[in-house]
Amino acid sequence: MRIELAGRWPLLRRLRLVEPAAGSLILDARRLTFASPLDLAAMVALARSAEAGGDRVRLIAPRDHNVTSYLERLDVISNLPVGAEVVGALAGGPRADRADSLLEVAHLTPDDADRLLDRLGRVFTSRYGPRGRRYFAAVGELVDNAISHGRSDLGAFIAAQVYTGTTSGRPGIEFAVCDTGIGVRAHLSRNLANEVPADDVAALKTALRPGVTGTQEERGHGLNDLWRAVPETGFARLQLRSGKGLASVVGHGGTRRPRCVLDEVDVPGTWAWLRVRPY
Description:
Elements: E1 2-4, E2 7-8, E3 16-19, E4 24-28, E5 32-34, H1 37-52, E6 56-60, H2 65-73, H3 76-79, E7 85-87, E8 102-108, H4 113-148, E9 156-163, E10 172-179, H5 184-189, H6 200-207, H7 223-229, E11 234-252, E12 255-278
Parallel strand pairs: 1-4, 2-5, 4-6, 6-7
Antiparallel strand pairs: 1-3, 8-9, 9-10, 10-12, 11-12
Helix pairs in contact: 4-7
Protein name: STAS domain-containing protein
């Protein structure tokens, strides 16, 4: 299939499936103008999952040289499957050290989780101090979900960035983790106390309810713990995608507004994206 990545934040919207043909995955980024951490991590997760399923993988590089350079700088290209074909010129060259403000796409496994979380903790607290520690706690819930509920042989992929607001006027943090596991619906169905969700949208709605889990433990899916960790004095948005389900939850001032819709593209595993912006 061919997925078109056009404009800004394309994978935060409903996916644009251009050609549904099986046997290959083409990520057409020619018209990509800006990529969020979710776009970066999801591109790699899609490519790795397709390659593991026997599909050929091709990435058509952005026409904008600066965007192509950004994909290289954030390690999207280097994390593609070994046999993936990249169409278009790559920038190459040296890269500046931005360890204090971003985490490039990284392969998340149980063995690497502590190292990556330690780096994220330093990035968030260096910018936001005590508030950054609460941001870090929220991100930790998503990482825990990916490791414990979305585990697979391929692992998961994460990326993050801290925004100072100097140019945009919108400071905050942005984090994404895309696992390649069984997905929310199959995970929830493992707990006999749950009704089997009718589809992926129903599964996401269920997962967002307090106290719901895919295990027999007395705990939630981690998502309610996440909202307790996010400061109430800020604006937060959580987006989840699993299978054909897409959920978006906006929270601020202690209130939350969820919205779940059906998408046409069935993605493997579960994607989670969190944006927190202080008032």
